[in-house]
Write a structure and sequence with these properties.
One of its GO terms (biological process) is lysine biosynthetic process via diaminopimelate. This protein has 398 residues and is α/β, with parallel strands linked by helices. 40% of the residues lie in helices and 14% in strands. The longest helix has 25 residues.
């Protein structure tokens, strides 16, 4: 077996199951699960209709590149969303079967394991796929702590030149999971300059880009930042986007990567062997989704309603603030994050995720410790009920 498999830690939800072992299974409260970032708003009918109308596509082997129609639809969306003047549907876009598989596969393509001390940098806390991808590509993860004192920014100012020379890939997540931080143009400028100097590739995870609160101020994207800074070839930058959160279709497994044509040429070569082409039926449903914004605006309205009602309820107890974007509250617990999550589960049947499970110790600190991630993904009334139970739990623990 691949010995690097032994370097993988249990996934956060495996740790959560272990944490809850021995708790009573009967509760006077209905279960409310706010631990996983799985959107539970209704899937738009236009997507299910398009899927059902194109089931004849199941009779065909799909192309790894996807159909020209899907690629052009994605290009059109990128240009509308980010104000880009030109993106090539032939060389700068690839459909992927969800951003998760693409984020993992990308490291296998990019990392040169023949180089000594190859490193993959990522924020800490982080989406656990980044670490697994690095380890199974033969690289060592390098964690950058994102903490409240720096507004949860991806602060790379303390990384020295010798370390940068070993970095081959940098994962960034903006809007961030779990903090919701959106990278500024200055942050992108710094990262791009370091990429130019040291040659690493940037993988920008943007799966939360369409969950934000001000319709007039959508989050800045990596390609948008590159374009504004004159990097119109998007050199060494690839973004990863998905319909899962935007359109409430996590089971569709549909997304795309876009950016540097030279990098994507090699990623396509890898994917041709990887065997992860998108079903033609899913491609047609994806075209319908990317072409419609009305359902996305309504989706944001529901999240905005939840955050506006729930943030003031929890703020006095857990110090929460509305994030820049995304659908998580990053809540500071009065004591141990694991004790808080276990107690809340036991007494009120509300599931949240301990922040320490989303991070690793780096520079003597686990930056997720003392936090829980609360995913406001359920219906508004259910999320409100969960918030009321959390307040009752905190009040009882005073």
């Amino acid at each position: 077996m691949n010995p690097d498999l032994d370097r993988l830690q249990p996934y956060p939800f495996e740790k959560l199951r272990t944490l809850f072992e021995g708790l009573p299974t009967d509760s006077p409260h209905s279960a409310i699960r706010l631990s996983i970032g799985e959107p539970r708003h209704d899937t738009p009918k236009l997507i299910t209709d398009a899927l059902a109308a194109n089931l004849n596509g199941l009779a065909n082997y799909p192309l790894t590149t996807g159909t020209p129609a899907l690629r052009q639809t994605i290009v059109d969306w990128l240009m509308r969303r980010y104000g880009l003047d030109a993106v090539s549907a032939e060389t700068q876009v690839l459909p992927v079967t969800g951003s998760r598989e693409a984020l993992f596969a990308f490291a296998q393509c990019v990392v040169d394991r023949t180089q000594p001390n190859a490193r993959v940098m990522c924020p800490n806390p982080f989406y656990q796929i980044y670490e697994g991808a690095a380890l199974l590509a033969g690289a060592q993860p390098l964690f950058i702590n994102t903490v409240a004192s720096s507004d949860f920014s991806f602060d790379i100012s303390g990384v020295d030149a010798d370390t940068w020379r070993t970095v081959q890939l940098v994962y960034v997540c903006s809007p961030g999971n779990p903090t919701g931080h959106v990278m500024s143009l200055d942050e992108w400028r710094t990262l791009f300059a370091l990429s130019d100097e040291h040659g690493f590739v940037i993988a920008a995870d943007e799966c939360y880009s369409e969950i934000y609160f001000d319709e007039a101020s959508p989050p800045l994207g990596a390609l948008e930042a590159a374009w504004q800074l004159g990097r119109t070839d998007f050199r060494n930058v690839v973004v990863f986007s998905s319909l899962s959160k935007r359109s409430n279709v996590p089971g569709l497994r549909s997304g795309f990567v876009a950016g540097d044509a030279a990098v994507l040429k090699q990623f396509l070569r890898y994917r041709t062997y990887h065997g992860c082409a998108m079903s033609p039926s899913v491609q047609e449903a994806s075209i319908a989704a990317w072409n419609d914004e009305a359902h996305v605006i309504e989706n944001r309205r529901l999240y905005r309603e939840k955050f506006d009602r729930i943030t003031p309820m929890l703020a006095p107890w857990l110090g929460v603030q509305k994030p820049d974007a995304g659908f998580y509250l990053w809540a500071r617990t009065p004591g141990s994050d694991t004790d808080f999550a276990r107690g809340l589960q036991a007494e009120y049947n509300v599931t949240v995720l301990p922040g320490s499970y989303l991070a690793r110790e780096a520079n003597g600190l686990n930056p997720g410790a003392g936090y829980v991630r609360i995913a406001l993904v359920a219906a508004p009334d259910e999320c409100l009920e969960a918030a009321e139970r959390i307040v009752a739990f905190c009040r009882a623990g005073q």
